[in-house]
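Researcher: Going back to the complex we discussed earlier. I've cleaned up the inputs and rechecked each line, so this should be the final set. Can you rerun the prediction on the complete assembly and write out the structure?
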Amino acid sequence: MSLRRFVLRRALAVIPVLFGVSVVTFGLFHLTPGDPVSQVVALNPDVSAAEEARLRERWGVSGPVWRRYLEWLSNVLVGDFGREIRTGRAVSGLVWRRLPETIALGLFGWVFAVAIAIPTGIYAAVNKGKLGDVASRVLALSGVSLPNFWLGLLLILVFSLYLGLFPVLPPSRLPLYHPETLRYLLLPGVTIGTAAAASLMRVMRTSMVEELNAEYVTAARARGLPERTVVFKHVLRNSLVSVVTLAATLTAGIVAGSVVVESVFNWPGLGSELVRAINRREVNVVMAITVVTAVAVVLANFLADVLYAVLDPRIRYD
Amino acid sequence: MSDDDGDAVEPVLRVEGLETHYDSTEGFLDRLLGRSRRVRAVDGVDFDLRAGETLGVVGESGCGKTTLARSVLGLVEPTAGSVYHRGEDLTALSSAELRDRRKDLQYVFQDPLSSLNPRLTAGGIVGEPLDVHGLAAGAERDERVRELLETVGLKPNHAARYPHEFSGGQRQRLGIARALAVDPEVIVCDEPVSALDASVQAQILNLLSDLQAEFGLAYVFIAHDLRVIEHVSDRVAVMYLGEFVERGPTETVFEPPYHPYTEALLSAIPEPDPLWEGDGIRLTGTVPSPVDPPSGCRFHTRCPRLVPSAEYDLSGETWRSLTDLKLRAREADGVTSLTAARTSREGDGSPVDGGALDPADAIDPAGPTGPTEASRETFDALVREEFGLPDPLSDPDAEAAVAEAIDALRDDRIGEAAELLDAAFVSPCERRHPTEYDVGADHGIACLRYDGEFDEEAGTFADGSEPAGSAE
Amino acid sequence: MTALLEVEDLTVRFHTDEGVVTAVDDLSYRVEAAETFGVVGESGAGKSVAARSVLGLIDRPGRIERGEVRFKGEDLLSMDESALRSVRGDEIGMVFQDARAALNPVYAVGEQIAETIEHHMGYDPAAAKTRAIRLLDRVGIADPEARYSEYPHEFSGGMCQRATIAMALSCEPDLIVADEPTTALDVTVEARILELLDELADEFDVAVQLITHDLGVIAGTCDRAMVMYAGEAVETAPIEDLYYDPKHPYTAGLMSAIPRIGDGRDRLRTIPGTTPDPVDPPSGCRFHPRCPFAEEACTRTHPSLVDPETGEAATLDDDRAAACLEYTEGLSGGLDYSVEVEEPRDERAGGDPADE
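Model: Rerun complete. Updated structure for the full complex:
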């Protein structure tokens, strides 16, 4: 099977998954007892039955569940997530404003994780059992074990308060593409990427050690190829296969981590918005963010699948 | 060991029409679209196993022999067919009843290490079947374990050791002791010695033969090594692509007449004798996929003794070459796969002088754009060279058909060429799935050449019919 | 005169958790230019370790402790890594037991051959590709142009082995070290690969050191052979002498343990016991616990390789050597075995190939 066909097949397979995501998201919010209208009603005992019905109509919580679902889905498909209850503003506007902030943070976290993990993993594997290997493994273990809210606070404490290198809060209206933004991204980005870097490095090291013992490595050496060709051409590509598999799962971790990290650093992304929306019971906002993150995770998995097939021809031909 | 004429005796195991197919369909989409890939691992196998005898099953990897072994004991569920033991069909038994049957039917695995639980001691491993079937307990059980270990040539004090503390041969002894624990009638041995060194292999083979004499065991002995099979078996079955192609008492299978596949297997054995001159029969190609096995005789894609069609006056060798061309044309994506590599014709001899492998020499006489750009003559010669076809063929009709196909190939009409060849050259072996023909007492060969009714000269059967359609 | 490859007093040890394993102990042999030299032995004999030592491919925890590996008169073991790399793949090629595993699964088979050619011969990519395709054709792979860009998993086992043979031959080496090249293959494929190796060795004028556990493989292809047991050479001989007049009881035992078609034996002759513990090998002759002719002296004195006729210590140039006390001190019972040569199968007048 050609790579193109493989990608096409995988892309098609994403559709039922996204459908499932929409059903689960909608179901969770609408089948659990206490819809937003009942909550409003509970807080304001003066609301009349007629007013309640109107509210339900307006917020789209009347009628049978399946019809509400279809309505909601058709709106979502055209990018309409409904309105905020308090302000009446379109939720989509809010999401599109916040999404780039979170993507920037997540990408920075990723780049940081990969930039640290891959070279360290290679170094540790090639120098297995030596001091550098042991040191990097100890660091990786600490990286995996540190909770990110704690790491975030620690970084703020050290770099912002003691050393004064970074401002504690990001400037509110600085556009993302402004070079200055990078400075503000650094601490939250490192915080969010550390755990991923640590797990990636461990997997990179393990899979590289395993691949280095493979017969094709001996065979490559027996052909007189220089060690750097053996490691960077032959072993690296094989080792990356397991790294990519892990990377897909880590994406979900980074997304989840963004909720905490954005709150700690007051980063104006979807994560901190989610916390706010939950506190204010903005159902439509919470649903919108849930859907967007779920789609992001599904897409990350799809990308990982494609990357996987690019790296390893055996996958394409299955 | 058993008599060959013991037909009257009810066999301990009778296998009828056994088929085990499994699904290798991968992925949700394939399943959704109903694209299934049925692997016909075992595809219609019959045999009897008599008390106290050894039936050897030999074949190359992928022929389905391990699946056969497992299907016989119900370790994998057969798709069709029956396995009778004491008159009862094992395939119809419930899993509990089948488990009970395992007291009589045991299995010895190829890889002793992976089939022994590493966390159990030797005593635990051998004693486990005693516990499971409630055969012995307490002091009696320990005594029986010691006895079994001694029977297979281990020491009673080995009972406390773990599998990794044994050598490969000792582990296989342990596997045999475990099988013996329930005092079975039949043991299916799946490549029991192929992982072992020659000297150890001989020890295990001798042990199996001693145990057979002592306990009256019947073995189904699966192996890829004909030397081992010949040594241990009373009767032999040769397996190819899920089917038995030859079956009979050992002496007769290893002597002419042979099934062409058996003959090729025998010819390929490396003999430990420097002056040995083999027959030099070499099979070309690889075993075809069991997903979509070849039509007619499944061996026809590789058979050195393919029956030529009586339409033409061609030698068997030329016929083989024609069939290879035809088979390759069916699968080809490009014409290059049907021509000799363009550079190999330069004929500057051996590459020792660096000549033939020098890139400067690699300038393609057919031009860089491919063989189809070459002259009709050159192209024709390249195709004939690749398949060893004489120019011209001895039969004028055949020559005309080949020439037409080569012309089509040259115009890059591969599909058309394949159709032309398909229409012109069809061996009776491709048309008819051979049944087993008797060539001697209890000796059957599933090859058209041994069909008494079939007249090779005329290409017809005794009743004048041609072998059309697949009879089975 | 120096031979193409001269291995002298090679000792390789592995430092494992269970103790120090001497995988190859004081091994000496030579391979002449263009000859096929067989190394036969069972698992644990040290034949693979010896083969890999030739190319300096011993990894931790293994270490080449002593000895010389002289290739064209130069000691490979004292070369620096980069000089050694220019010999590997260029002048000495290697063929592995598991050919599929020896090919990198994520690169096309042809690319891997071309890679070696570019590296050692300085060809540009296009020329290297042409040469790789011609090699694939030469080792009998049909449609080499298309196969060039296919991946190892698209090749059958036999085709993988053909491809690695093409790879080993790619820079026209003087020596190929083939480590059990046919063990993982079916018998019909094995026969074709052995014939191919034989044919190519002849055509490319390359010497082959063929390592195998199968005496049948050696018999059909080699000019001379060495039998190894527990890390040591126990016998070296021209091929016909080895089979028709084995001088070491282990060689004789190994031969009689092979079942042969048509010999009509009910029982196989066996070598009792198992290969010795590599951490703590037996004293004296390492084969004595399994040798039917062992005497008291065998448990004490370690026999060295000697010329079986004269009893003098064997040198690298000797064609015939065996390590048994019979040829130095003499055993009181002697070596009581003889060899019978069986008639060809079809003529069917069999006897045991080796009997007492």
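Model: Worth noting: The mean pLDDT of chain A is 85.
Researcher: Good, that matches what I expected from the previous run.
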